[in-house]
TrEMBL record, chain A:
Species this chain originates from: Streptomyces guryensis
UniProt-recorded name of the protein: Sugar ABC transporter permease
A single BP term in Gene Ontology: transmembrane transport
Disordered: region residues: 1-22
Residue stretches making up the ABC transmembrane type-1 domain: 87-301
Keywords, sorted A to Z: Cell membrane, Membrane, Transmembrane, Transmembrane helix, Transport
Gene3D superfamilies assigned: MetI-like (1.10.3720.10)
TrEMBL record, chain B:
Superkingdom of origin organism: Bacteria
PROSITE patterns: ABC_TM1
Family as reported in the entry's similarity comment: Belongs to the binding-protein-dependent transport system permease family.
UniProt topology in membrane: Multi-pass membrane protein
SUPFAM superfamilies in alphabetical order: MetI-like
Name of the protein this chain belongs to: Carbohydrate ABC transporter permease
Length: 311, 315
């Protein structure tokens, strides 16, 4: 629907260059198709990255103003206990949340693909729906549901005479955040895995069934290997997502200010450095450092996963 | 919640299973009909309940006054439902600023989504169908950039935009959202498959120019992939919080996410007196902001599911 309107509204605007391009050799057309994207990519990705790298090498000083300090900011970052705490916390979050989320997504996708479910379509769309909910709204909803005085869980346990769960306390917070993120993204990952499962040729299952393989055996020996690339994709996105955790803690901060401080996650720390602390240069170094941690971690994850396959 | 149920429950399961499945899987589906598992269905319905619970809460709560939000049981209606009052108050509070936010969100996200999809389609098609110097290197560079955390980019982008006076304008939100590495990746795979070389050759022999071939032939064949990219960029921009949070400080320019969070911190943080009814507004506003995307996903599901299928397979 949208696509057809895209095509039709875009044509008249491109009428000008079309005439010019029509006469060009075919060889020049490729770069021209790619150019608009690449130009914006350079401006929106590489330029800010370069600028951050540049800024991170300077410091604002009372005497001397903007001074080149080399890698000083990075040395400070390495020794900064607040940053370390934030990075360790998101790493912890990653270790709790990502395996849980991906295993759930995998199990749901296999269940949907098994053909054993009634109402499969309703279930599939229902699990996916949270992806369309902004994380702001998701966090507000869960924040309310978690509430120790007025949340329904607290109300229920009061009625039943049970101790009220303190979802927003220091000990529970990371788990509560993991629940919000899991709620938001299980469906998305499930859909990617499910889409990959749908493309496995049916003949494989039939051949396996003929050889006496049951549904569990088929899932383990045919479906799981077929899902490898899609699983790697979801894993990679999850690494990136969890290390830059920001929205959910930032939005729960007003209702749990004692638990979530300004350096609760690495990203929250970079944000508060730049916007409340006015330490732009150091914030750039922290952002850059965090980006580096994510790239290293992503490659480590990919490398381990690939090596396990080869061995 | 109210919007998710009608389109799905009105369809009986057998029909649902038969429609919209790719031809390759039809045989499998047919084979498995008749041995449905009730225990598995019950477990998955329990799972479904977990995912719909917060949305159910949201729908129920948007019918309550702020006082009832605190005093009545959270998961059921209060004695005095007042959905229409809440909607009215949400839309008119502070001179209708919520409508501004909603409109901003629509403009930012539709603009970015259409732009991003077209850019990704053109570039994906260029990468898939032409060989040129630097082809693979450029593509690898973009794919590598997927790993750069957007939030690590956002702060330097803010500082750069501040230098060229783009901060606190709609461009500050739209421009960064126009580049979608994932969209490019998807469109390249999609174009390689969906646009046959023989068709391009035939059009060239007929004397069509390259851009004309793209606009009249390729774009049409790329439509399902385009819808996928449009939808996912739309969601990304619609739901974006970090970028507008740092780029904008004029409340009139806020998208709905930043607006709602500013109301929420008034409701939670302000506490005393002045904003006594704020929480009901936050809840009702949340519900209103969720509905359009959920409806879009349900209506366009055939497109984005087939588009994702293409992307999920070959990597």
């Amino acid at each position: 629907m949208t696509a057809t309107t895209v095509a039709s509204t875009e044509e008249p605007r491109r009428a000008g260059p079309r005439r010019r391009l029509g006469g060009l050799r075919q060889g020049a057309a490729g770069p021209l198709f790619v150019a608009p994207f690449m130009v914006l990519f350079l401006l929106m990705f590489l330029a800010p990255l370069g600028y951050a790298a540049y800024l991170s090498l300077f410091q604002q000083r009372l005497i001397g103003g903007n001074t080149f300090v080399g890698l000083d900011n990075y040395l400070t970052a390495l020794k900064d206990p607040l940053l370390r705490e934030g990075v360790v916390r998101v790493a912890e979050f990653f270790l709790i949340q990502v395996p849980l989320m991906l295993v759930l997504a995998l199990v749901f996708a296999l269940a949907l693909d098994s053909g054993l479910l009634r109402l499969a379509r309703v279930i599939r769309l229902g699990i996916f729906v949270p992806y369309a909910v902004p994380s702001v709204v998701a966090t507000l909803m869960w924040g309310y549901l978690y509430g120790p005085d007025f949340g329904p869980f607290a109300q229920l346990s009061q009625k039943l005479g049970l101790p009220v769960p303190h979802f927003l306390s220091d000990g529970w917070m990371l788990g509560s955040l993991a629940n919000v993120v899991t709620w938001e993204f299980v469906g998305y990952n499930m859909i990617i895995l499910y889409a990959a499962l749908r493309t496995v040729p049916t003949e494989l299952y039939e051949a396996a069934a003929m050889d006496g393989a049951g549904p569990w055996r088929i899932a383990w020996s045919i479906k799981l290997p077929a899902l490898r690339p899609a699983l790697m994709l979801t894993l990679l996105f999850s690494v990136i997502g969890s290390f830059q955790l920001f929205n959910e803690p930032k939005l729960l901060q007003p209702i749990a200010p004692d638990v979530i401080d300004n350096s609760y996650t690495a990203n929250l720390y970079a944000y508060s450095l730049a916007f409340t602390g006015q330490q732009v240069n150091y914030s750039a170094a922290v952002s850059f450092f965090l980006g580096l941690v994510i790239v290293i971690f992503s490659y480590a994850v990919l490398f381990t996963a690939n090596r396990r396959r080869n061995s | 919640m109210t919007t998710t149920t009608p389109p799905t429950t009105s369809r009986p399961a057998p029909r649902a299973a038969a429609s919209g499945t790719p031809p390759t899987s039809r045989g499998r589906r047919r084979r498995s009909v008749g041995r449905r598992s009730t225990p598995l269905t019950i477990v998955m319905l329990a799972v479904l309940a977990y995912f719909l619970l917060p949305l159910f809460w949201l729908a129920v709560s948007s019918t309550k006054s702020t006082q009832d939000l605190f005093t009545s049981f959270g998961l059921w209606f209060s004695h005095a439902p007042q959905l229409l009052e809440n909607v009215h108050e949400t839309l008119t509070h502070d001179d209708g600023v919520f409508l501004h936010w909603l409109l901003n969100t629509v403009l930012y996200s539709v603009g970015s989504a259409l732009g991003a999809a077209l850019l990704a389609a053109a570039a994906g098609y260029g990468f898939a169908k032409y060989r040129f110097r630097g082809n693979n290197a450029a593509f690898a560079l973009v794919l590598g950039a997927v790993m750069i955390p957007t939030t690590a980019l956002a702060i330097p982008t803010y500082l750069l935009f501040a230098k060229v006076d783009l901060v606190n304008t709609p461009w500050a939100i739209v421009l960064p959202s126009l580049v979608s590495p994932f969209g490019l990746y998807l469109m390249r795979i999609y174009a390689a498959d969906a646009v046959p070389d023989s068709l391009l050759e035939a059009a060239r022999i007929d004397g069509a120019g390259e851009l004309r071939i793209f606009c009249t032939i390729a774009l049409r064949l790329l439509a399902p992939g385009l819808v996928t990219v449009v939808l996912f960029t739309l969601v990304a921009t619609w739901n974006n919080y970090f970028l507008p949070l740092i780029m904008l400080n004029d409340p009139k320019l806020y998208p709905v996410t930043v607006g709602l969070s500013s109301w929420a911190s008034q409701a939670f943080g302000g506490g005393s007196g002045a904003n006594s009814n704020m929480l009901a507004l936050v809840v009702t506003g949340s519900l209103i902001s969720v509905i359009p995307l959920v409806v879009a996903f349900l209506l366009l599901q055939r497109y984005w599911q087939s588009g994702l299928a293409a992307g999920g397979v070959k990597q």
